[in-house]
């Protein structure tokens, strides 16, 4: 009922107010003329001038369309008051509607499209909206470390229609009503506002012989437009609980893909995994012929920060796949798990991370003791559920599954056996090849980042890379690629800080030397306030653009990377900050203690030498004094004996 009332009110305002007509957002000018002609066209067209006559039929048909689309709603609303049965009958006969539940993977795309149309239209009709935070990527760079405002960008707010509000979206001249509404459970009761079970109810006036196929093709157009715009971006889905007992795939981000080339594994390892996956993706017929379930599971294991997640993202970019994360530690039971696998968004690689930390350990009893498998009341995936998933019982044809873990020993043999898991790869600490590649990817220019031949053109950087590598080797420590990345970022940051510091100093001295132009506040006040505001905004924009260009062109001085002490100290600082594994911390502590001891020894040695020098000086002084005294004595008391030489060793003074 309220749905139709809203529709009626919307139509009423659309007819009575030209500025609020949905067309006004896209073609404001033409709408005014259209509607001002309405009254004339209804009573005839005699009032129209010759040059306007040509569009009269169009105006008439538009008005007729508007009336036609409104009248059924008005009638159905009135009848709805009189008799719900009649209301239902009219709705049933005159409208088509499609409901998309929140647990459908396209729910978010359709919701996004509709919200964007609303934002585009900036409809003045929307009065009560939902405010959500919008991530403002562009405000993050350039990073001038002295500009505090810049480093803490203000969050941006975006307005969306509220749950329950009615939106109108025009598609090729056809009007679609869209409403987000709280989902009704099966017995017809609403779940209440606290729960986020939502439907998108899209309805449209029934058009002859098109029925729901028309609205289906409209929704398909919307989806196509969203997908074509976001093509080349990685869509990441996460399996989430939508409301009690119900799970869905939620799109959590739509990012630029991580480039496959930006991930550095051991020499040829990346190509090996890629080749294996490509071979699988191109072998559907072979699998079918042999009657083998067409699915492929890969385990990536190794210490944290060796690039397991990064590699999967890079692989997804390379193969143009989306990523669907499913957490094995979430409160998800076997039924939920398997049903989610059947609904995995198309063209996705399924990723189950931190497998060894899940409740599915190699010892099922241990798992139960730890509260797994539902004994603690929290629904859990059981080992049997996981084995079924890996066997491909519920997974769609062509499923590609990646499992990641730090400790492979914690995974039961049943899981690892051939047929369930097809390949196992170990990603470990960075070797010389990876250190070198990471270095060039960070500091090389153009082709040098990936092409060893091109690096020969930069012997200076090659020298720095070699010396840097030898410093790392002298550390004699296992370093992950994540630690190396952090090192380079920290180094860059330090150098940038130095750069901005210098810039700031130069800026101040430049201003003071040139006797910067002082602003006459009186003159400013006389200026038009609006103009000032515009000028200020433009200046800010220009300044930002200049800084952005400058940021891109900052030349980082890499010579410090050849300083062994600097490199070792920065690594230790990073390792301390990032809380590396205990063993590494122990090693650092040991080395620190050793260094401290060495320094203490050197200090004592130095002190001893200084004291020795002092004693020698004292002795010399004493001798000199004695000589002076004896001279004096010679002069004053000729014949007095000289004092005996001290029997104490050097540096010990006699009391
Ligand atoms: N081999 C690598 N090549 C490029 N970048 C890497 C590599 N390994 C780690 N990194 C960087 O380190 C960070 C952490 O890496 P990532 O999350 O992929 O590690 P992980 O092995 O999945 O760790 P965990 O086991 O804790 O999940 C990322 O920012 C990534 O850019």
TrEMBL record:
Keyword line: ATP-binding, Hydrolase, Membrane, Mitochondrion, Mitochondrion inner membrane, Nucleotide-binding, Transmembrane, Transmembrane helix
Catalyzed reactions per annotation: ATP + H2O = ADP + phosphate + H(+)
Membrane protein topology class: Single-pass membrane protein
Keyword ATP-binding: yes
Any matching Pfam family: BCS1_N
Biased composition (Basic residues): 591-603
Record's protein name: AAA+ ATPase domain-containing protein
Lineage, uppermost ranks: Eukaryota, Fungi, Fungi incertae sedis, Mucoromycota, Mucoromycotina
């Amino acid at each position: 009922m309220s749905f139709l009332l809203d529709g009626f009110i919307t139509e009423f305002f659309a007819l009575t107010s030209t500025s609020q007509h949905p067309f006004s957002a896209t073609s404001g000018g033409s709408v005014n003329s259209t509607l001002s002609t309405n009254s004339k066209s209804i009573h005839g067209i005699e009032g129209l001038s010759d040059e306007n006559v040509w569009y009269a039929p169009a105006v008439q048909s538009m008005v007729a369309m508007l009336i036609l689309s409104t009248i059924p709603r008005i009638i159905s609303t009135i009848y709805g008051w009189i008799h719900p049965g009649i209301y239902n009958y009219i709705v049933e006969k005159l409208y088509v509607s499609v409901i998309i539940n929140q647990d459908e993977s396209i729910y978010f795309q359709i919701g996004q499209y509709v919200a964007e149309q609303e934002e585009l239209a900036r409809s003045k009709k929307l009065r009560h909206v939902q405010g959500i935070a919008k991530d403002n990527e562009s405000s993050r760079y350039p990073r001038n470390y002295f500009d505090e405002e810049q480093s803490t960008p203000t969050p941006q707010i975006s307005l969306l229609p509220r749950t329950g509000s009615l939106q109108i979206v025009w598609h090729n001249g056809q009007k679609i009503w869209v409403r987000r509404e709280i989902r009704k459970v099966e017995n017809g009761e609403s779940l209440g506002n606290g729960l986020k079970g939502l439907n998108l109810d899209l309805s449209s006036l029934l058009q002859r012989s098109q029925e729901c196929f028309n609205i289906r093709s409209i929704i398909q157009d919307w989806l196509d437009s969203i997908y074509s715009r976001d093509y080349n971006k990685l869509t990441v889905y996460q399996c989430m609980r939508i409301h009690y007992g119900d799970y869905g795939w939620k799109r959590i981000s739509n990012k630029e893909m991580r480039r496959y080339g930006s991930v550095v594994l051991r020499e040829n390892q990346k190509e090996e995994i890629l080749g294996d996956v490509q071979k699988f993706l191109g072998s559907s017929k072979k699998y079918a012929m042999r009657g083998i379930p067409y699915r492929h599971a890969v385990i990536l294991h190794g210490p944290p920060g060796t690039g397991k997640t990064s590699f999967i993202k890079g692989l997804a970019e390379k193969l143009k796949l989306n990523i669907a994360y499913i957490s094995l530690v979430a409160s998800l039971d076997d039924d939920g798990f398997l049903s989610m696998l059947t609904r995995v968004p198309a063209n996705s690689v399924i990723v189950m991370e931190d497998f060894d930390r899940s409740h599915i350990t190699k010892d099922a009893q241990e798992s139960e003791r730890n509260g797994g498998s539902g004994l603690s009341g929290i629904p859990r995936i059981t080992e049997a559920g996981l084995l079924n998933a890996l066997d491909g019982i519920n997974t769609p044809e062509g499923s590609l599954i990646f499992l990641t873990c730090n400790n492979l020993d914690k995974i039961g043999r049943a899981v690892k056996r051939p047929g369930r898991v097809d390949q196992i790869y170990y990603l470990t600490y960075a070797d010389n090849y990876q250190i070198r590649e990471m270095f060039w990817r960070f500091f090389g220019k153009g082709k040098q980042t990936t092409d060893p031949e091109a690096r020969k053109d930069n012997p200076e950087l090659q020298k720095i890379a070699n010396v840097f590598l030898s410093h790392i080797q002298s550390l004699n420590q296992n370093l992950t690629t994540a630690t190396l990345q952090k090192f380079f970022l920290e180094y860059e940051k330090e150098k940038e800080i130095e750069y901005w510091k210098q810039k700031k100093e130069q800026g101040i001295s430049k201003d003071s030397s040139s006797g910067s132009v002082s602003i006459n506040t009186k003159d400013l006040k006389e200026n038009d306030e609006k103009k000032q505001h515009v000028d200020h905004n433009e200046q800010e924009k220009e300044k930002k653009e200049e800084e952005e260009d400058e940021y891109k062109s900052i030349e980082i001085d890499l010579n410090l990377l050849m300083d062994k002490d600097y490199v070792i100290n920065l690594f230790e600082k990073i390792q301390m900050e990032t809380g590396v594994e205990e063993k590494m911390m122990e090693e650092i502590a040991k080395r620190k203690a050793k260094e401290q001891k060495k320094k203490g020894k050197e200090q004592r040695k130095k002190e001893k030498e200084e004291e020795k020098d002092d004693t020698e000086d004292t002795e010399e002084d004493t001798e000199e004094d004695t000589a002076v005294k004896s001279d004096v004595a010679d002069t004053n008391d000729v014949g007095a004996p000289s004092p005996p030489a001290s029997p104490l060793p050097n540096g010990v003074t006699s009391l």
